[in-house]
Amino acid sequence: MLEILYQDSHLVAVNKPAGWLVHRTWLDRHETVFVMQTLRDQIGQHVFTVHRLDRPTSGILLMALSSDVARSLSQQFEQHQVAKTYHAIVRGYLLDDGTVDYALTEELDKIADKFSSAQKAPQPAITHYRALASVEVPLPIGRYPTSRFSLMELQPQTGRKHQLRRHMSHLRHPIIGDTTHGDLKQNRGVVEHFSCPGLMLHASQMQLSHPVTGEHLSITAPLDSRWQGLIGDFGWKGILPALEGVEFASPSGQDSGQIVIR
What we know:
CATH architecture: 2-Layer Sandwich
Order of helices and strands: EEHEEHEEEEHHEEHH
Shape: globular
Structural class: alpha+beta
């Protein structure tokens, strides 16, 4: 059963589990679980996709219940009228706020895009980021005796393929669990020491105009058990109370910007 975050007669939003494909694809012939088919069976109604969410990413996936609504929602995404907020855990200390304005070349799939034409010129890509917390743990995952991690809020202004993962890697603070653009040693270390596999990137909030009524919609997706466990291990409980599903008191003796555990 998928967790339904919002549903009316026109659209539905679910909390996509990490590792789930949105729909069937010949590139993953052996997969048997898909969001579209599962949701269709769950609500007894056909659904239409309007935006992408990578397989390893968890969080809000919005779908339409008719082709007309799907077209209207797709236009909102294409015209950057949908505000999306993600949260990520990255390698190292990233303690400030800022904007990554770094053009990205199109990433082609080795199989699906093997007959594609020559690579296009880099496309503009902008991501706003905000540091929420940081931690240093006494684990020699890399070449140092300790390992550092930061909790980030990310807001993409554009929607390029793997934009958040590539922009964090560009800052030399790759997202934990990113097998393509990340740090393999850090990824393995987090799995080994914290039993937390997968990409630590979560589509947590979405704000948009209802395609039929015009009302403002704000949708939030709670964190899964992997996230709950890791933020507990890092002492970050209470930083994201709306996503944790439980109200926590603010940690005493900490300022509102960073938490640093040494």
